[in-house]
Write the structure tokens for this entry.
Amino acid sequence: MYCLQAVIVAEPARSRLLDAFEGATLVSLGQNLSLMPVTETRFDTGPLAACSAHGAVAYVEAEYFGGTGTQSAQVWERGETVLGPLHVGEDEPHPADGSPISQALRRLGVLKGDHFDEFDAVGLGRHRGTEDWLSA
């Protein structure tokens, strides 16, 4: 099983995100990005647009079990949605330009290099659940 619910922020917007979400935990992903695990069932993405005034911000979700699952992503820059919301449901093929999360990461500047995709390039598979990122 794999489950992720997180905000991924580019370095210039990092301090804004910390101001908007008191007590937030950020984990470095490399490539000038940080991940904020989201543990609330219902998460208000409203403040993310304001945070993006200084750098790109993405909200991502993924849930997989036994190789099938769902992915969603949305990206804000300069206070506006610039990608998404994207969603791929269970048993739906990923678009030719990549999974929703990989597309969001690409929009945030991630280079996949020799990795399978942008998801792999920043190591989003290193933890199986959102809460595991809190102890990283």
